[in-house]
Every structure is written in C-alpha cells, then in structure tokens.
From TrEMBL:
This is Protein HGH1 homolog. InterPro entries: ARM-like, ARM-type_fold, Vesicle_P115. GO terms for biological process: Golgi vesicle transport.
Length: 242
C-alpha cells in the first residue's frame, strides 16, 4: 500500500526544485550573454543559443524571467530579425530564429490559465513579461508588422504571441492595431485569402479575441465583411470535424 509523502519527501522535493531553478537561471544568463555578445543574430552560435533558450523557457519559464535581461533581449531580437531592419535579408536567415524568439516569449508568458491563489506568481510573471515585450516592441507595433511577412509559420507564431499578450494587457494592442491600417489589412488578408489551416485558424482566434470587448474593432470587422468570413471558416471546420 502506498504511503502519503512524508515531510522529508516534501523538503527533498523543494531542495531539488530550488537547485534546478538555480541551474536554469545560470544557464539562461549564459545564453543571454551569447546572444548579446554576438553581433549577428543569425549566426550559428546565436541560433544555437536561441534554440537552447527557447527550450529552457518551455521547461523553466520562471528561471528565465528571473534573468533580468532575458525578456528585453528577446524582444529586441524580434526587431533585429525582422526583414527590413538592416540586419537580415534572406528568408532562410531570419525565419527560424525569429520563430524561436516568438515561441520563447510565448512560453515565458504562459497560457493565462492560472486560476488558483497559489498561481499568483504565475499571473504576475505573465503580466510582467507581456508589459516588457510591449515596451520593447514599439508598444506592440513591431509584432503586428510580422503579420505581413511572407512566412506562414512566423505569421502563426506572431498571432499566438499577440493573443498571449492581449490576455494580459489588451489596450496597447488595440491602440497599435487601430493606429496601423496596414496591420489590420494584413490580418484580414490572411483570414480571407490564406489556404493554410493553422494560419487561418490563428487569424480567427485572434480576431475573436480582439472583437470581444473593443467596439471600434468590431465596427471595422463588420464593415469589411470579416464576420461572414469567420462564420464560413467556423462552419467549414465544423463540417470537417463532423
């Protein structure tokens, strides 16, 4: 018969978790050093560091966030890796590291499902990360520009990150979207013309989130016939599932 965990078991578990957290923090700090010291964000060294940091963000987000430079460094990498920044030009240079950066930031924010009182730290971390990303990405404008890039996976990762940020602080994203007609046009173009399911579904999810509370965005969506497009996609999805 199994016995309930003893006090010593609980203490041992806490010690192991603390040690792992310290190790992860040290690893994150080292990876950030590699990223900031390398002048090229697309070099093999930077790509490897970014891939490792993304994996660490998935496994130990709190330890990465505790590394003071982590979130600002990743947010600035989004700008540096975006075509037109003067740092990268070819798609095979920027696409993969940019996707890794967006995914890492998404892991650091989390999925926003923390509900218990013990998860107060998780909610606070999500809010803090979202605020830092917005601040270092031109109040969200840089993330919206990614919607016009010619790479479906990057578009999808950008929309996924925007949703995570929006759940924490919708106002900056609303303001950035309303101030940039090109970003809204890119989003609507993807919804109405993209034939890739996961990208199109990402558009639907983001638009449903954007229109849930903002009346100005609701009006734009209605005027441009986006509602009909969303219903058509949802109906198509229901038929494919059924």
């Amino acid at each position: 018969m199994a016995h309930p965990p003893s006090f010593l078991d609980a203490v041992s578990k806490n010690i192991i978790e603390s040690a792992n957290s310290i190790d992860a923090h040290i690893d994150a700090d080292s990876l950030i050093d590699r990223l900031t010291l390398d002048p090229s964000p697309t070099s093999t060294r930077s790509r490897n560091a970014l891939s490792e940091l993304k994996d660490l963000a998935r496994r130990a987000p709190a330890a990465v966030v505790a590394t003071e430079r982590a979130v600002p460094t990743l947010a600035r990498l989004v700008i540096r890796l975006t075509p037109g920044s003067g740092v990268v030009q070819e798609e095979d240079e920027w696409a993969e590291p940019l996707q890794d950066t967006l995914e890492a930031l998404r892991y650091l924010i989390g999925d926003g499902r923390a509900t218990d009182s013990k998860d107060d730290a998780v909610r606070m971390r999500a809010r803090d990360v979202a605020e830092l990303v917005v601040r270092h990405a031109e109040n969200g404008k840089q993330l919206l520009r990614l919607l016009s890039l010619p790479d479906a996976s990057t578009q999808h990762d950008a929309m996924a990150l925007l949703q995570r940020i929006y759940l924490q602080m919708p106002r900056p994203i609303d303001d950035a979207l309303l101030a940039d007609p090109l970003a809204f046009n890119s989003l609507m173009h993807l919804l109405q013309n993209c034939q890739i399911d996961f990208v199109r579904n990402g558009c639907v999810s983001l638009l449903l989130l954007l229109t849930a509370t903002n009346e100005e965005i609701q009006k734009i969506v209605v005027v441009n016939g986006v509602v009909e497009s969303i219903f058509a996609i949802l109906k198509e999805e229901d038929l494919s599932v059924g």
